[in-house]
Amino acid sequence: MVASNRVVVLIVEDEPLIRFNILDVLEDVGHVALEAANADEAMVVLQGRQDVDILFTDVNMAGSMDGIQLAKRVRAMRPNIGIIITSGMVGLDPRALPANAAFLSKPYMHDTLITTIDSLMT
User: Fold this and answer.
1) Residues 89-98: what's their mean pLDDT?
2) pLDDT at 3
3) How far, CA to CA in Å, does 30 sit from each of 3, 5, 27, 88?
4) For the chain, what is the radius of gyration of the CA atoms?
5) What positions does the domain Response regulatory occupy (predicted)?
6) What's the DSSP call for residue 97?
7) Four-way CATH pick for 28-106: 3.40.1790.10, 3.40.50.300, 3.40.50.2300, 3.10.20.90
8) In the sheet that 82-87 helps form, which strands lie side by side, from edge to edge?
9) Is this prediction's pTM over 0.85?
10) How many CB atoms lie within 10 A of CB 28?
11) Backbone dihedral angles phi then psi of residue 42, each to the nearest 5 degrees
12) 27: closest CA among 117, 122, 97, 121?
């Protein structure tokens, strides 16, 4: 599996094993993977980097905001960033998502994640 374009993805996931697994999958296909354990860490990364193409966030996380609140804040700051929201606990209606956003229900296949990233970048 090889990515067509190098994409910078910020992974926001409070479960370390899941976060590291996603990081490995993305790096294996040639993407640049950044990581944050919660929304507060993600905001610090985003303030320091203007090259993030995709925000990949879990819904349920400890910290000052959950993944949906993070997605809304990031959308307001950077209208062109792609957003992938994921959860194994809640379902989101895709029609309720902002433009250039997608929802993946856990568990998801790695191929589905890569395809979703590619579709948000076109």
Assistant:
1) 70
2) 44
3) 6, 8, 5, 26
4) 13
5) 8-121
6) S
7) 3.40.50.2300
8) 32-36, 8-12, 54-58, 82-87, 101-105
9) yes
10) 14
11) -60, -40
12) 117
Structural tokens at position 57 = 């966030």
Do 85 and 59 contact (CB within 8 A), yes or no?
yes
CA angle 22, 25, 31 (to 5 degrees): 100
Query: Could you please report the per-residue DSSP string of 13-57?
Result: -SSHHHHHHHHHHHHHTT-EEEEESSHHHHHHHHHH-S---EEEE
pLDDT in tens, 38-70: 999 999 999 999 999 999 999 888 889 989 889
Q: Which two tokens stand for residue 64?
A: 């000052």
